[in-house]
Amino acid sequence: MIEQEIIVIGACWDYINQVYDTAGFPESKRKNIFSGGKEGPFADPALIQPGDWIKYKNLPYGEISHSAIFVEWIDFDRRSALTIEYIGRDRDVPGWFREADITKVYGILRGVE
After folding, report:
1. Rounded CA gap, 43 and 32, in Å?
2. CA–CA separation, 20 vs 24, rounded Å?
3. In the 8-state DSSP scheme, what is residue 45?
4. How far is residue 18's CA from residue 102's CA, in Å, rounded to a whole number?
5. pTM listed for this prediction
6. What is the radius of gyration, based on Cα positions, of the chain?
7. CB within 8 A of 25, min separation 6: which ones?
8. Which residues contact 80 (CB under 8 A, 6 or more apart)?
9. For every one of its 113 residues, what pLDDT tens digit does the chain have, with 9 covering 90 and above?
């Protein structure tokens, strides 16, 4: 979807949901790995695996709630990760890769067969 610059009008959640659906992981093929509140508790970062849908507080942007797909750790100790992101807010832009601070992950979903 990134290479094809597919645009999903809606929130970050809508984009990530479309990625999962397109990859063959509709809601019935998703497992809740961790669920905390927006104020915590937050997930143990060791739980996070490539491809996970993470819900976290986007620290540089006023700690707003945000969804992304975890790709890999850039620096585990600093909780810096490469993620697939979508700006949301009904903007007409495609998703992209971004380095994100995922210190406060409060939700992890994983596709399962």
Report:
1. 12
2. 6
3. G
4. 22
5. 0.92
6. 13
7. 111, 112
8. 73, 74, 99, 100, 101, 102
9. 999 999 998 889 999 999 999 999 999 999 999 999 889 999 999 999 999 999 999 877 777 789 999 999 999 999 999 999 998 777 788 999 999 999 999 999 999 98
